[in-house]
């Protein structure tokens, strides 16, 4: 499948990346941590019954954690959801050291190539601060980013707000928002930026990426897109 372009792209000052489903193959960490999380909740008498389907959790990637738990464990109390937050972070940070987690193919090389071209690189994620930074550190890409922004650190209510804060803090006027969910498309468009939709992850398919300026089927396509983009 070839890159699908719907709008003309101009060379940006910066690229802003979602983490889960864009840079990081989230399921390599999330699935084992997710099952262990519910084992712990049952041990602590905070949850009864079977673990909700892992597909349900994967379908929520890109949402704020509080919205994820409302969908995954809708009948649980606020206290149980807060405990789930704590356990998930604990298990994921441990899992980054224990499990064979993966970035998508070509992520590190592509980020390095973009950095060499003078592109300013950032992350904007709806995840928790220590998780998002932990993934970047575990996979040796932390140093490539000028800033790693997370909803968990900045307490933003939406990715639109998080990206606006990032743009303002760093004086960025032109950027590509690169992500795999509708929240990424919205964050780019509502902040007046181009959007590159990532159609390779399997989570953000179909209507999720409607409104993107271009769709890519591998991360490495970003280099060609940047090199062929017009100067603004």
UniProtKB/TrEMBL annotation:
Its EC number is 3.-.-.-. InterPro entries: HAD-like_hydrolase_sf, HAD-like_sf, HAD_2, HAD_sf, PGP-like_dom2. Keywords: Hydrolase. The keyword Hydrolase applies. It holds the Pfam family HAD_2. GO terms for molecular function: hydrolase activity. It comes from the Bacteria. Coiled coil: none annotated. The keyword Transmembrane helix does not apply. It is an enzyme of class 3 (hydrolase). This is HAD family hydrolase. It comes from Paenibacillus haidiansis.
